[in-house]
Amino acid sequence: MAETRAERFLQHAAAVGFDVDDEIRVGGNYQAVVRDGHLLYVSGQVPRIGSEVVVKGAVGGEVDLAVAQRAARIAVLRCLALLRRELGSLDRVARMLTMTVYVRSAAGFTQQSEVADAASELLLQVMGDAGHHARTSVGVAELPKGAAVEIALQARAES
């Protein structure tokens, strides 16, 4: 695996077909990242590559666990891309704090944590020890644009 956060980030992005330099558009009257001192709040990101949400549907229904985990990786990569744009480098992230993973769940699906594990593992692989975080995973009936997963996170920037 690559040595730097930037190299690891680019490697993971390439593996899922996400161009980290693509525009990440905001679809409403809000900001993708809000910074308050050293705290950064990243708004919910769905598994969108370019202008297309690439994983849609209910997990445990038309979307299986492995595909939902891919969706979680794409969504958290978008969060990291937004942090990188805000700070200029992922090296300026001192610590991931919390992550909330929303999983569009079919009736009876109870593996929301396993979907979220894919995003958590990617954060640790890219960010090293700074990737450790608190996490909540929630099953929901619907998500924007029919997405299977949405992820929001909070991080702390270096002083």
From TrEMBL:
This is RidA family protein. It holds the Pfam family Ribonuc_L-PSP. It comes from the Bacteria. PANTHER family: ENDORIBONUCLEASE L-PSP_CHORISMATE MUTASE-LIKE DOMAIN-CONTAINING PROTEIN (PTHR43760:SF1), ENDORIBONUCLEASE-RELATED (PTHR43760). Coiled coil: none annotated. InterPro entries: Endoribo_LPSP/chorism_mut-like, RutC-like_sf, YjgF/YER057c/UK114.
